[in-house]
Amino acid sequence: MKSIHTYITEKLNIKDINVNKDNIVGLGLPSGTLWCKYNVGATHGSTAESWYGNYFTWGDTKPVDVKKYDWDNYKYDNGNNKLTKYCPIDLTDYWGGSGKPDNKLELDIQDDMANANMTGTYKLPTKEQLEELIKNTTNEWITNYQGISGLNGRLFTSKTNNNTLFIPAAGYCSGDMDGVGYNVRIWSSLLYENIPVGAYALNADRHYIYLDKYNRRNGFSVRPVLYI
User: Fold this and answer.
1) Most CB within 10 Å of its CB: which of 49, 60, 153, 214?
2) How does pLDDT run across 123-160, given as a tens digit for each residue?
């Protein structure tokens, strides 16, 4: 099996790329997408909490401060629960910025929470990359991963090369912390076009796994992919 370094330099034709190869796993996906092994901010030590990492609202590169968490503190709120960036609908129900809505559906790289908080070439996964991950792996709910008490989550195993990717049940912030140890939520880079206060994210627990739309002000985990 080729190493990650060989895969990057030969198959992707990139000779000089700034990545931590110990934080990259190749799952043999059709797109060639390489996933990071850990959430942004995770130290992946001997406790479940060390694997969770930071929580981010969609498009805000600063981690959520749970004590100040509410819609009024969302980066792209004008103070009256109206959006000032990432809005394709010209209705006062949603748009509160200057001029016309910007019609942006994908996060700009400067607003990408993975790219802004990691040293290297990383970004949030697209909706298509999350769908590809689910389709091309088997996944199961794991408790006490690697023997760490309380470290629960979804383990994805490649159908192509049997490499694995673990995403912990870090829960989420929605006013207060919820779902810790029981729920996986990770952001995609795609806005929900029909109701732009929402964006797509992966949602999983012990019973199900799917993509859905969630309010952008929620604090979810970020699991990067290699940005090429």
Assistant:
1) 153
2) 999 999 999 999 999 999 999 999 999 999 999 999 99
Token digits of residue 116: 């802004």
What is the per-residue pLDDT across 74-108, written as a single tens digit (0 to 9) for each? Answer: 899 998 889 999 999 998 889 998 899 999 999 99
What is the per-residue DSSP string for the chain? ---HHHIIIIIS--SS----GGGEEE---TT--EEESS-TT----SSSGGGT---B-TT--SPP-GGG-SGGG-TTB-SSS-BSSS-----TTTB-SSSS-----B--GGG-HHHHHSSSSEEPPPHHHHHHHHHTEEEEEESSGGG-TT--EEEEEETTT--EEEEE---EESSSEE-TTT-EEEEEEEE-SSSTTEEEEEEE-SS-EEEEEEETTSBBB---EE--
Burial class (CB in 10 A: 0-12, 13-18, 19+), 50: middle
Alpha carbon dihedral 124, 129, 135, 139, in 10-degree steps, equals -20
**Phi then psi for 198, rounded to 5 degrees?**
-115, 160
Count the neighbouring beta carbons within 10 Å of the beta carbon of residue 70: 9
User: What integer is the mean pLDDT of 167-183?
Assistant: 94
CA gap 186, 39 in Å, rounded? 9
Range of the domain at 79: 4-226
Kindly indicate the confidence band of residue 205, based on its pLDDT and cuts at 50, 70 and 90: very high
User: Total structural domains in the chain?
Assistant: 1
The token duo for 93 is 């129900």
